[in-house]
């Protein structure tokens, strides 16, 4: 592939506390705000606590999930005093860091998240051909020795993309697990800090004219979600993720493999025809969304060399 | 060598005791009126104590609505009861979903931590329209399973909890002198081999005891971790279910006349709590549990060992002289209670052999 020239990544946003109980991002944002820059950095970075009310209460959200409020429809809907807090906040963030889809939007938005699932570090985006995001992923994979780093892709068009990271011209959620919600684990905090620092290093090097060689990145594209088995009347769950599947995010799941273990001891198996890669296995916040795990297809994506276009 | 007070001795139920050596607690100031109850028995293992039968037990889950193993153990037990009635278990068992509103919302509590509402003060103050939901519910549960301290109280409450700390299976109790509870602990320790089983005693007088299991005559909490709140893990659920089944099993065997041999039970006594380093103005945390302490519940913490790693990279160390054992390390629900971990002292409790008292 030919080298691709891309515009400078001059404005970056680092957002934490989009979910108020995902604490590594909350404390990282607090640290960054404490050590505010003296203005001599090569990249302009804005650090934002996305959902301050939820952070204060240490809950995922106050009225509605903020990270589902960034579709075009929600961003352009009229708001009043009675609108949900998070809807008002999403429009504020869109004004600050966007507007989504416009030339004024930040060049890169990195949104910090934690999960109870054993995902390691994932960069989650809506594109499988955003060379900036893919190169940042490759850089983290090279430099982070003790943390697995993966690229997860949700194939959703920009208008319907619902999360905060879709506001930037380039963007991703930096998701790190496993960590219980409302808990900060030191190694998870350090991994997130390292991930953000490496991202900033890459951007600085890119902006200074470094050529980043192309290559290959494994991309996991979301195919479908699987819900828990539930009682048909009460809708309560009747099984937990099977011990053979628990904590085995990104390990290939074959038809017939155990998926759930009912509370009365029966094993339920994966009935799909295609072997797929499970992730977000047993994420606490997804019980109410009807998701026990997500399934993805993996494929190798070739990425070109990239170089900054200073014009 | 263990030194403890025994209510059974004072009630004259101690049937056969071989005193190999008896010593008064010389050199210690004893409280007025308590002297005759304190003595050391070095060979208490030879004693056989007859204890009253246990007629009924309660299994309580969802005392904290987001600690899900207990919620689903109770759900499964209710399903078994619907299917088999009283034959579901070899002894009478009452199952209770302690805090249904909190369970529905998958929160620890709605207005107030219910597992702090069972002290005498809260249970005896009158209910008003403005009483917190959990206080109302505590009164209801006290009527259902108590009243606390009375002869009508249920014999045993087994209250099910989860923690984000790496505590394996921990049995938590108020006193060091309840031999029923300690025998159940010993039984679980011998039967459960896949997970560490430890005993934690809080050493609090019963009237000050604030948690649900203090309502019953004998009671303990089964705490299993690590599990995130709002999540149910199959492996953790299985451990908890097995612990409940073994508790029922012990009571059944005990009621049938089996002699349970005495012996030593290793336990940890709560000494104090340690908070996180905090910003003096905002009170937000400035450090997390150090990676070398994280997940090392019940290890021995010595002077100079790392406790916290600040978000800016500094290590805070344990400065005390006395080595102690930390537990509830990084429990999510304790951030607001200003507890990073508890510290405890390891001790050996000696319990006599026991058998059910035949009328």
Can you put this structure into words, describing what you see?
- Helix content of chain A is 23%, strand content 27%.
- Chain A is built from 6 helices and 14 strands.
- A 9-stranded mixed beta sheet of chain A has the order 3-2-4-7-5-6-8-13-12. A 3-stranded antiparallel beta sheet of chain A has the order 9-10-11, with no helix packed on it.
- The longest helix of chain A is centred in the middle third of the chain and has 22 residues, at 186-207.
- The two termini of chain A are 22 Å apart.
- Chain B has 359 residues and is of the alpha/beta class.
- Helices cover 22% and strands 26% of the residues of chain B.
- Chain B contains 7 helices and 18 strands.
- Chain B has helices at 7-10, 68-84, 100-105, 120-124, 133-145, 179-191, 234-255, and strands spanning 3-5, 14-16, 22-23, 38-41, 48-51, 57-61, 93-97, 156-162, 168-173, 197-201, 218-225, 263-274, 287-289, 306-310, 315-317, 325-327, 341-351, 353-356.
- In chain B, the strands form 4 sheets. Chain B has a 9-stranded mixed beta sheet with strand order 7-6-8-11-9-10-12-17-16.
- Residues 1-39 of chain B have low confidence and may be disordered.
- Chain A: Keywords: Cell membrane, Cytoplasm, Hydrolase, Membrane, Metal-binding, Zinc.
- Chain A: Its EC number is 3.5.1.114.
- Chain A: GO terms for molecular function: aminoacylase activity; hydrolase activity, acting on ester bonds; metal ion binding.
């Amino acid at each position: 592939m030919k080298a691709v020239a891309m515009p400078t990544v001059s404005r970056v946003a680092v957002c934490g506390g989009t979910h108020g109980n995902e604490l590594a991002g909350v404390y990282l944002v607090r640290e960054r705000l404490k050590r505010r820059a003296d203005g001599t950095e090569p990249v302009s970075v804005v650090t934002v606590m996305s959902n301050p009310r939820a952070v204060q209460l240490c809950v995922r959200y106050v009225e509605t999930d903020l990270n589902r409020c960034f579709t075009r429809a929600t961003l352009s809907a009229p708001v009043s005093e009675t609108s949900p807090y998070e809807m008002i906040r999403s429009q504020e963030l869109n004004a600050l860091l966007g507007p989504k889809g416009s030339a004024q939007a930040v060049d890169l938005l990195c949104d910090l998240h934690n999960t109870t699932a054993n995902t390691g570090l994932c960069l989650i985006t809506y594109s499988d051909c955003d060379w900036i995001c893919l190169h940042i992923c490759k850089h983290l994979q090279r430099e982070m020795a003790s943390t697995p780093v993966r690229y997860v892709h949700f194939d959703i068009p920009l208008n319907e993309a619902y999360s905060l990271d879709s506001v930037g011209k380039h963007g991703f959620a930096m998701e790190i697990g496993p960590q219980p919600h409302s808990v900060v684990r030191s190694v998870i905090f350090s991994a997130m800090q390292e991930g953000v620092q490496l991202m900033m290093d890459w951007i600085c090097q890119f902006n200074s004219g470094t050529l980043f060689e192309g290559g290959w990145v494994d991309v996991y594209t979301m195919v479908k979600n699987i819900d828990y088995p539930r009682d048909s009347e009460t809708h309560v769950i009747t099984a937990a993720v099977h011990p053979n599947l628990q904590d085995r995010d990104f390990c290939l799941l074959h038809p017939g493999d155990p998926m759930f273990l009912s509370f009365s001891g029966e094993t339920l198996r994966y009935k799909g025809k295609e072997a797929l890669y499970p992730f977000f296995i047993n994420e606490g916040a997804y019980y109410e969304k009807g998701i026990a795990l997500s399934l993805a297809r993996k494929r190798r994506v070739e990425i070109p060399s990239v170089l900054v276009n200073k014009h | 060598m263990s030194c403890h007070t025994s209510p059974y001795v004072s009630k004259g139920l101690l049937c056969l005791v071989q005193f190999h050596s008896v010593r008064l607690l010389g050199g210690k100031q004893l409280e007025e009126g308590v002297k005759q109850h304190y003595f050391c028995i070095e060979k208490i293992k030879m004693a056989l104590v007859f204890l009253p039968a246990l007629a009924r037990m309660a299994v309580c889950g969802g005392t904290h609505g987001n600690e899900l193993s207990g919620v689903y153990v109770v759900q499964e037990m209710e399903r078994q009861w619907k299917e088999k009635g009283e034959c579901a278990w070899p002894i009478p068992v009452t199952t209770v979903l302690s805090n249904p509103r909190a369970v529905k919302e998958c929160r620890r509590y709605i207005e107030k931590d219910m597992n702090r509402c069972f002290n005498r003060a809260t249970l005896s103050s009158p209910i008003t329209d403005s009483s917190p939901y959990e206080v109302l519910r505590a009164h209801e549960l006290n009527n259902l399973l108590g009243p606390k301290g009375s002869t009508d109280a249920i014999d045993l409450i087994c209250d099910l909890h989860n923690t984000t700390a790496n505590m394996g299976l921990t049995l938590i109790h108020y006193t060091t002198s309840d031999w029923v509870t300690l025998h159940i602990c010993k039984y679980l320790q011998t039967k459960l081999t896949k997970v560490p089983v430890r005993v934690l005693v809080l050493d609090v007088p019963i009237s000050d005891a604030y948690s649900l299991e203090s309502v019953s005559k004998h009671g303990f909490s089964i705490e299993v971790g690590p599990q995130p709140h709002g999540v149910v893990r199959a492996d953790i659920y299985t451990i908890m279910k097995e612990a409940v089944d073994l508790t029922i099993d012990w009571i059944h065997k005990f009621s049938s006349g089996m002699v349970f041999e005495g012996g030593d039970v290793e336990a940890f006594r709560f000494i104090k709590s340690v908070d996180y380093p905090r910003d003096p103005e905002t009170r937000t945390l400035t450090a997390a549990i150090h990676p070398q302490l994280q997940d090392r519940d019940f290890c021995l913490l010595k002077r100079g060992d790392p406790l916290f790693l600040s978000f800016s990279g500094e290590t805070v160390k344990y400065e005390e002289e006395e080595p102690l054992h930390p537990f509830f390390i990084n429990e999510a629900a304790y951030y607001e209670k200003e507890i990073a971990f508890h510290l405890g002292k390891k001790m050996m409790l000696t319990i006599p052999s026991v058998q059910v008292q035949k009328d």
